[in-house]
Amino acid sequence: MIKLGLIGFPLGHSFSKNYYLSKFENENITDVDYDLYSLENINQFPNLFLNDNRFKGFNVTIPYKQTVIDFIDDLSVEAKQIGAVNCITIQHIGDKVLLKGYNTDAFGFETSLVPLLTPQHDRALVLGNGGAAKAVLYTFDKLGIPYTIVSRSKTNGNLTYEQLNRDIISSHPIIVNCTPVGTAPNIEEAPQIPYEYITNRHLLYDLIYNPAETLFLKKGKLQSAITKNGHDMLILQAEKNWQIWKDNF
């Protein structure tokens, strides 16, 4: 039995396990299993696969997308540029165990975003500067869309939420929430931006998929903005992960 899994902490609600197990059942894949591995410390990670050659890959989620790189032998081009990994392949070659890291979040984000873009969507406001934002920034660089980062503290030229005003909101018709604010069960929370300046020219994208419509998106929709949640991004990256793992089996 081939083993795949998700590492992170804490692992409460997991899209990945349900998605892959349903996929395996629907496609009659009987020789692969997927499970959750909640690790309080990333240093516990090697204990999973070093003595069990059934492991062929992992997904990585918060808070280990960056720290897991210390355990990886090789990085794909996009993972190296982004500096974050959400997909790992494992090869057992004799006594050696080789790990390669990928970032499929960028693929998922780009593929789900591009169909929504129009010529007016020429600048982006990125809320948050953590690991989740890295794939988003990489994608905007790739698409040639300038962006401004908003974070709670002012560093490296980032804006703070308190600095946001009509001019900034008006000149950034794409706004992406890369923070966990608004994730279930905290569905009454939303990033503190001046929503009254959002118009029908805006596209609001939330990486959160649970709930399906966050307060951030609801507030944007009230201002006639186009809105998009993170569900399609999640499906796209999950399928990309599966392709990568299958090629490694």
What can you see in these coordinates?
Helix 4 crosses helix 5 and helix 4 crosses helix 8. Helix content is 31%, strand content 23%. The protein is elongated and about 60 Å long. The protein has a six-stranded mixed beta sheet. Strands 9-8-7-10-11-12 form a six-stranded parallel beta sheet. The chain has eight helices and twelve strands. With 249 residues, the protein is an alpha/beta fold. The chain has helices at residues 15-26, 45-49, 77-82, 105-113, 131-143, 166-170, 215-222, 231-248; strands at residues 2-8, 32-38, 55-60, 74-75, 87-93, 96-102, 124-127, 147-151, 159-160, 174-177, 203-206, 226-228. It has two domains: 2-103, Rossmann fold, CATH 3.40.50; 106-232, Rossmann fold (3-Layer(aba) Sandwich), CATH 3.40.50. The longest helix is centred in the last third of the chain and has 18 residues, at 231-248. It starts with a strand and ends with a helix. Strand 11, helix 7 and strand 12 form a beta-alpha-beta unit.
Chart the SSEs and their pairings:
Blueprint: E1 2-8, H1 15-26, E2 32-38, H2 45-49, E3 55-60, E4 74-75, H3 77-82, E5 87-93, E6 96-102, H4 105-113, E7 124-127, H5 131-143, E8 147-151, E9 159-160, H6 166-170, E10 174-177, E11 203-206, H7 215-222, E12 226-228, H8 231-248
Helix pairs in contact: 4-5, 4-8
